[in-house]
Amino acid sequence: MNFFNKTIVKLIPYVPKKVVRIFASKYIAGETLSDAIQVTAKLNEKGILATMDVLGEDISTKEEAERNRDECIEVIKAINKFDLDSNLSLKLTQLGLKINLDLCFQNLKSILEKAKLFNQFVRIDMEDSSCTDSTIQIFERARDYYPNCGIVLQAYLNRTLEDATRLIEKKANFRLCKGIYVEPETIAIKDKQGINRNFLKILKTMLATGCYVGIATHDEELVQGSYKLIEEFKLEKTSYEFQMLLGVRENLRASIVKNGHRLRVYVPFGKHWYKYSLRRFKENPQIAGYIFKSILFRD
Ligand SMILES: Cc1cc2nc3c(=O)[nH]c(=O)nc-3n(C[C@H](O)[C@H](O)[C@H](O)COP(=O)(O)OP(=O)(O)OC[C@H]3O[C@@H](n4cnc5c(N)ncnc54)[C@H](O)[C@@H]3O)c2cc1C
User: How far apart are CA 58 and CA 130, in angstroms?
Assistant: First the structure.
């Protein structure tokens, strides 16, 4: 499968952009905020929550970081204006994490100020392991300023149980996912069963202490494992949620909703969708394989 995925990734740049757009459109709401608003409103009609995410490019200047900040603020305003059941997800590198930590924090703070005004929640995504420490550091600073924000932790990292245990003491709001970046085996679990065991162990630790968790997975084994923990701790439906990516495993999504659980869909949008998709495919050829598979075998 690896060779197959890598071959697909190599071929994608030769496929006309219009064609790539056709298969990317299942996973991306569109190029504009108004596309994302429409997709979110349709999800809301089905009783599904959303988290909107402005796709961004690698940035290297303060101006680009500020433009991204302003786009995030526009999302917050739109959520309020159109009364959407959504929050905002963002990546700190888009706000300048790799340029200067203080610049990044100031940009985040401006976004949080707007979120505070409308009482909205903001989720800070987790990026590759070169960003883990600084992301946690900025999250902790942000949380002191505005508690209605949360962080993502990745079950494939060896360090995560320790990070979770420390953040649990502060009653952090988590999204737990497997992790999407290709990390070295010195710091990350590589086999699927090992990642799944760690995922459920961390999830149990989070849920046992009453932390709110967004359980972000399309893996049925993890969904079933989560159901068991939810039952074991007799959790209220409002104390956790499931999360899935737009366009992925919609049958599983429907069954989670039918079982009465809250479900939030990640709604990415923006004019950088093409470069973003190519970069994501290169970072992790498995994604290209997923897309190809899901076109051929719709579940
Ligand atoms: C809401 C949400 C937010 C996320 N935020 C982050 C983040 O901040 N940082 C981070 O590192 N990762 C993030 N991820 C990605 C996550 O880490 C996983 O890599 C990804 O979801 C695949 O893992 P899985 O649990 O679905 O299990 P897998 O075993 O990888 O997938 C189970 C099945 O789901 C399907 N599937 C999974 N992913 C896709 C896909 N992209 N396209 C098509 N089919 C797919 C496949 O059929 C696969 O067999 C997020 C995921 C979600 C759902």
Answer: 14
Distance of CA 273 to the CA centre of its chain: 16
Nearest CA to ligand 1 atom 46: 290
Q: How far is the C-alpha of 298 from the C-alpha of 275, rounded, in Å?
A: 25
- The residues that are catalytic are 125, 175
- Residues 243 and 175: beta-carbon distance below 8 Å: yes
> How many angstroms is it from 280 CA to the middle of ligand 1?
12
What pTM, to 2 d.p., does this model score? Answer: 0.93
CA 81–ligand 1 middle distance (angstroms): 30
- Give the residue numbers spanning the domain of 102: 29-269
Query: Residue 171 phi/psi, 5° resolution?
Result: 55, 45
Q: Give the pLDDT confidence of 18-76 residue by residue, as tens digits.
A: 777 776 778 899 999 999 999 999 999 999 999 999 998 779 999 999 999 999 999 99
Distance between CA 263 and CA 168 in Å, rounded? 22
Specify if 13 maps to a domain: no
Identify the pLDDT of residue 298: 47
Mutation to probe ligand 1, out of 55, 177, 192, 246 (largest number of atoms < 8 A from CB): 177
Mean pLDDT score of the chain, rounded to an integer?
A: 92
Q: Which atom of ligand 1 is nearest to the CA of 128?
A: 11
Residue 88: strand pairing partners: 52, 122
Question: What atom in ligand 1 is closest to the CA of residue 243?
Answer: 1
Q: Is 216 helix (H, G, I), strand (E, B) or coil?
A: strand
Q: Is residue 19 part of a domain?
A: no
- CATH code for position 228: 3.20.20.220
- Residue 157 is assigned to a structural domain of this protein: yes
| Residue having the nearest C-alpha atom to atom 35 of ligand 1 | 218
How many domains does the chain divide into?
1
